[in-house]
Amino acid sequence: MSEENTLISRWLQVYQQLAKATTTAGRDPASVKLLAVSKQHSAETIRALALAGQRDFGESYVQEAQRKQALLSDLPLCWHFIGQIQSNKTRAIAEHFDWVHTLDRHKHAERLNEQRPTHLPALQVCIQVMLAEESGKGGLWPEEVLALAQQIQQLPRLKLRGLMCIPPPLTDPNAQLAQFQRMQALLKQLNTHGLSLDTLSMGMSDDYVAAIAAGATIIRIGTAIFGQRNSQHEDQ
Length: 236
Ligand SMILES: *Cc1c(COP(=O)(O)O)cnc(C)c1O
Known about the structure:
alpha/beta; 41% helix
């Protein structure tokens, strides 16, 4: 098979697994959005997948994403920022993305709110939740989330949609499920405080089936679609 055929067939396989997992969970397959995580993959690769029908793409590095977005501006794509937010990149994020999954600080929320261009719709955001002590990944502890959520509600250029997590990698499906169910319970609990959150961004290549069983509405899939990434990226 050509590289492009391999790409498309892997992508279709993820969709089949998604359909199977939603059906098993008694959910509508259309209730889960597949976000193709294209960090460290080329604009040509993204274009091939976009032409096959993929619309949502996730990127972790702002400059890398901007380079590719410029090459793909003829396509109606939806861009999701899923990397760690740095204060000096909030303007570029506010101007070039439709979604941000990794909000964990009021200061960043305020900057994104101020910097979101008025000709664009509100920036769709999720709060990143930390489920276990792990260095360098960001996120708030579950008990800290409500306070930030209420602050974000006050910011008109941001639309708070829900929660996101990058849990520690576990291989046991029951352990994966237990982690994701904590997110599901947290979302439900926040909604009892007058929030109306509808999004759980959780599940990656190795645990998305468990995430779907626990109510994921966006799964973020890189390797299972694009194959392995090289460990280096080009941003500074
Ligand atoms: C890279 C990345 C993914 C995709 O991970 P895979 O294991 O390759 O599917 C998902 N979410 C975030 C936040 C990432 O940084």
